[in-house]
Amino acid sequence: MREIVFIQMGQCGNKIAEKFWEIIANEHFINQCGHFYGDSILPYQRLNIYFQCAQDCRFVPRCVAVDLEPTQITELKNSSVGRLFNPEYMISGKYGAGNNFSKGHYTEGAELMDCVLEKCRLQAENCDLLQGFQMVHSIGGGTGSGMGSLAMKCLRNDYEDRVINTFSVIPSSKISQVVTEPYNAVLGISELVFTTDEMIMFDNEALYNISLASLQLPKPNHCDLNHLISKTMAGVTTCFRYPGQLNTDLRKIMTNMCPYPRLKFFIPGYAPLDSAHNNLEYKKITVKSIVQQLFSPEFRMADFECQDEKLLTCAAIFRGRVSSREVEEAMVDLQRCRKEMFARFIPNNIKTAICDVPPSGIDMSATLLSNTSAITVIFRRLIQQFDKMFEKRAFMHWYTGEGMEEEEFRRARNIVCDICDEYYETCQFDCDEDDNSDASECNDECDCRTDQ
Ligand SMILES: Nc1nc2c(ncn2[C@@H]2O[C@H](COP(=O)(O)OP(=O)(O)OP(=O)(O)O)[C@@H](O)[C@H]2O)c(=O)[nH]1
Ligand SMILES: [Mg+2]
């Protein structure tokens, strides 16, 4: 088996992970005590990817839960999936990192790091053939950004040839009042870009907008956002969890999706999106409507106003009894209509996979990962907020007080700017090529807007 060790870091990471485990336990017919109650082989076949089989055929999530304060870990233990977890792999500190990257990276978090690494090592040793690590965290929090990036740095040293993938939540002032988040986020990204292989970025701002405008939730909260994130994570991991052909492990995703080593930031999408108030049972869902929604800006999970966005690569994973011909036609239609959006110097840059097993409650769904220049809009938003504070050295004493130096901030900012430049330069390759495209090829019937 190609097992994955899952790391859930900080409050945000553990809250999202709770939902994620709830969904995948349900999909794989694992009850609250960890026992398999299904009657078919399909959900059982690859259970070992995310679960460790313990005594009495009990399936235990192969995860390490970490937070520098105890509250969230206690909540996780008391949640509906709490009994699934092995308490020995739940680690908490006392006081938290106080929204401060440096506490997570250099002081409080560093003190607890040996313990975290030891737990990761034990989990890895219990695997037949470890494929890599996945971490879910927020890059706005002190623990999520500081300790999360430190953990990835240490794991990269210890497991050079394993794949490291993160699900990283980007902060937004629409849902959080913490002023130091742009510092933490820029510092976090500047570390993670060197230690991870692929980063799937969830922008809280976009998720908030989707919830408010498209799903019509009057006042979206973290729970609403986590509903969307966890469903998408379950979608992304479908190919690992069930037998299939494409992107069946972390390394294949990496190879297919990253044309250059530093261009490894993926924006996710999921369709059909729902909420507690927006019930899908009454809607007709077709392959065409799913594809339209996946690529429509109102439903993408990264907030951006990118006029000349270029999609370098993308992977779409369909679930349910969908016809591969219909999927192929819908994708071809889309590429024809939105020709300008796809980078021409990478032919066949859309990969699709189909998994017969639908998510529970609906007939079909799709998840998209896209490596797109639009990520730079988010990075620039963070840099702008970072610059405003850094210009006046606001809140710097919290960081220098823990031993950090101003130079580290400058370096981090430059690294994030360099990533933006690299995306920009890569997209210029298309301008160098002859443009033989003819927009009129797109027939009038082809409507790539969502019909939600
Ligand atoms: N989507 C989502 N975002 C969250 C959630 N909880 C916190 N956040 C966001 O994450 C950022 C704060 O990170 P936390 O995870 O609370 O912080 P932490 O990693 O525990 O670090 P410290 O509390 O500073 O030690 C803010 O931008 C929040 O909006 C959540 O459940 N879902
Ligand atoms: Mg916290």
From TrEMBL:
One of its GO terms (molecular function) is GTPase activity. One of its GO terms (cellular component) is microtubule. Residues 246-384 form the Tubulin/FtsZ 2-layer sandwich domain. Its cofactor is Mg(2+). This is Tubulin beta chain. PANTHER family: TUBULIN (PTHR11588). One of its GO terms (biological process) is microtubule-based process. Gene3D superfamilies: Helix hairpin bin, Tubulin/FtsZ, C-terminal domain, Tubulin/FtsZ, GTPase domain. Pfam families: Tubulin, Tubulin_C. Belongs to the tubulin family. Residues 47-244 form the Tubulin/FtsZ GTPase domain. Keywords: GTP-binding, Microtubule, Nucleotide-binding. It comes from Chironomus riparius. Dimer of alpha and beta chains. A typical microtubule is a hollow water-filled tube with an outer diameter of 25 nm and an inner diameter of 15 nM. Alpha-beta heterodimers associate head-to-tail to form protofilaments running lengthwise along the microtubule wall with the beta-tubulin subunit facing the microtubule plus end conferring a structural polarity. Microtubules usually have 13 protofilaments but different protofilament numbers can be found in some organisms and specialized cells. The keyword Nucleotide-binding applies.
